[in-house]
Design goal:
With about 375 residues, the protein is α+β, with helices and mostly antiparallel strands. The protein has helices at about 1-10, 55-75, 80-85, 125-140, 160-175, 175-180, 185-190, 200-205, 245-255, 275-290, 295-300, 300-320, 335-350, 350-365, and strands spanning about 20-25, 30-40, 45-50, 90, 100, 105-110, 210-215, 225, 230-235, 240-245. The relative contact order is 0.12.
Length: about 375
């Protein structure tokens, strides 16, 4: 029975609590996550990491534990209770390891549950965008002195533009004539944007942009808020790895500033929300103004455009590959997702100069 197995796993970790009951948390799509309640009504999160998706689970767990402990040191002025609400707290096993591997080869880790936290699936007002910007900005600021090369690449080439173009080129060679014809306009657009979409990668490879600790999944649902809707803690750090600030900034903007769902078919509804952008930037730069270079700040809008593009490219590539990666609900689902993201790029591009100016003017005002 699963309850007996979870009880056994729970008992392998270093605590003094007695297992009472569990509830499955269904918020994630990759790992199995359980809320464990003890006899003393203490709560813990017990998680089985999917080793089919992540090839180096011990490395993944080491990444997030190292980053959390670094954050705890930076926030050591807080009370112990407050610290456990502001940073994910991982519990070692009784043998001193950061994970337990069961007889089936599954990897488990355990965290203290953060009481009284709430999450949002979408952003509906500028206040949430602003608080999200502050929270992810603080995460980047507090880890700016962490040596990112200590971290493994959890998902190799995840944001590598050359790699994504290589996948696209392979798909072009193998795609059916019908799908090639259908996607012709967007295939041409991918080629038109190729040079611009490699700018950040070239700056990174030339060492002109600092390699940092990046979260790599900065959708708003990975920001935990308190009951007053103030930012509390960055969660779901499974994809923490080395990267550049533009990855995290860009992915947040991609998910926050689309006025429609990612697979909305009516492209007239897909627009870039400039107000949400400015609110997020305000919070983000308030926290990162001392740790980001002028060059990094200058290219933040391009980071957003690049992250939108990389998702458009991945959806289009999967469509050309006959939908082998993303789950689809109808034959052209991936194509509709791709068109959606390309429309978001078009809408953003109309405001691009305004976004660039806003970033630099806002930072200048903060330094006065």
């Amino acid at each position: 029975m699963i309850i007996e197995h979870l009880k056994f796993i729970f008992e392998q970790f270093d605590h003094i609590e007695v297992f009472k009951e569990y509830t499955e948390l269904a918020s994630g799509h990759i790992n199995d996550t359980y809320l464990i309640t003890s006899q003393n009504n203490q709560h813990f999160v017990l998680q089985r990491i999917n080793s089919g998706v992540f090839k180096d689970v011990p490395g993944l767990i080491a990444n997030k534990v190292m980053v959390s402990r670094h954050l705890q040191k930076k926030l050591k002025h807080l009370s112990e209770e407050e610290l456990k609400r502001r940073v994910l707290t991982f519990i070692d096993t009784k043998k001193g390891a950061s994970y337990y591997q069961d007889i089936d080869g599954n990897f488990w880790n355990m965290m203290v549950y953060i009481e009284g936290g709430i999450t949002f699936e979408t952003v509906n007002n500028v206040e949430i965008a602003y608080e999200g910007g502050k929270l992810f900005g603080e995460f980047l600021n507090l880890t700016s002195d962490f040596n990112a090369v200590k971290l493994i690449e959890v998902i190799p080439d995840f944001h590598n533009m050359s790699f994504r173009y290589s996948q696209f080129d392979t798909a072009l060679k193998e795609a059916s004539q019908q799908r090639l014809e259908l996607a012709k306009e967007y295939i041409e657009l991918v080629e038109e944007l190729k040079e611009e979409m490699h700018v950040l990668q070239k700056l990174k490879e030339a060492g002109k942009i600092k390699l940092r600790v990046t979260h790599n999944d900065t959708k708003i649902s990975n920001a935990l808020f308190d009951l007053n809707k103030k930012g509390l803690c960055v969660i779901d750090t499974d994809t923490v790895m080395p990267g550049i600030v533009h990855y995290d900034f860009g992915d947040a903007i991609r998910t926050i500033c689309n006025t429609a769902a990612e697979d909305e078919r009516d492209l007239n509804l897909v627009n870039f929300n400039v107000d949400f952008y400015k609110a997020y930037v305000k919070g983000f730069l308030e926290k990162t103004k001392t740790s980001l270079s002028v060059l990094e700040i200058k290219y933040l809008p391009l980071g957003a455009k690049s992250m939108i593009f990389i998702m458009a490219l991945r959806f289009l590539t999967d469509f050309l590959n006959d939908d082998v990666y993303y789950k689809t609900e109808y034959p052209e689902h991936n194509f509709d997702r791709s068109k959606n993201q390309f429309k978001l790029i078009e809408s953003m591009s109309e405001h691009f100069k305004e976004l660039e100016d806003y970033n630099l003017e806002f930072v200048a005002s903060l330094k006065q």
